[in-house]
Amino acid sequence: MIRFRDITVAYGKDIILENVNLEIEQGEIITLLDPNGSGKTALISTLNGFIKTVKGSVTIDNKDILKMKPEELARRVAIVPQFHNTSSDFKVFDMVLSGRTPYIEYMPEKSDREKAMDAIQRVGIEYIKDKKYTRIGGGERKLVMIARAIAQERKIIVLNEPATYLDLENQIKVLKLIYVIVS
C-alpha cells in the first residue's frame, strides 16, 4: 500500500534521512521508534507531500504521490500532527468537520455533519464539541485531531506521537481506538 523507495530527505543542505526503504501493507499498524530529531516527522511529512524527497519515491497503491493532485492525496492520507496550533476561533465540531474538506464541494452536507459527529462520539469528546479549539488543553486538542482524522475516512491515518499530552486513561483509549480503526 505505502512504499518509501530509497528516499533521501533534506532540509536545505542538511540531509535528514538517506536511502530509506519501507513498505507498509493495508491493515498494518507500525510504530517508528528512534531518538528525537532522527527524522520520524520528516518521513511522515514526505507521505503527505509537505516535504519533497531529494531522491527516491513515495507511492500509495503504486502511484507516486508527487503525481497526485493535492485533493487526491488528501482523500487518501490523514495526518494527526505531533503539535497543532491555530489562532482561528473554530469550535471543536468545526475543526472535526474540516476533515471532510476534500469531499465538500460548496457547503458541508448533512452526511458530512453526521460523520463529524460520529467521529466526535467515537473519540468521546462530545463534552467539548461546542468549545473553541483555542480554549481547550493540549490533550483535548490531540483528541480533536484524532476525531478529525477519523471523520476524513482515509485509507491511511498517520499519527505522529498520538499519546503526547494525553493522560493515561486517554492514552489507553486512543491506542484501543487505533486498533479498532484498522481492524
UniProtKB/TrEMBL annotation:
InterPro entries, per database record: ABC_transporter-like_ATP-bd, Metal_Ion_Import_ABC
Pfam families: ABC_tran
PROSITE patterns: ABC_TRANSPORTER_2
Residue ranges occupied by any ABC transporter domain in the UniProt entry: 2-182
Signal peptide positions on this chain: none
Alphabetic keyword roster: ATP-binding, Nucleotide-binding, Transport
GO MF annotations in UniProt: ATP binding; ATP hydrolysis activity
Entry protein name: ABC transporter ATP-binding protein
Organism: Clostridium thailandense
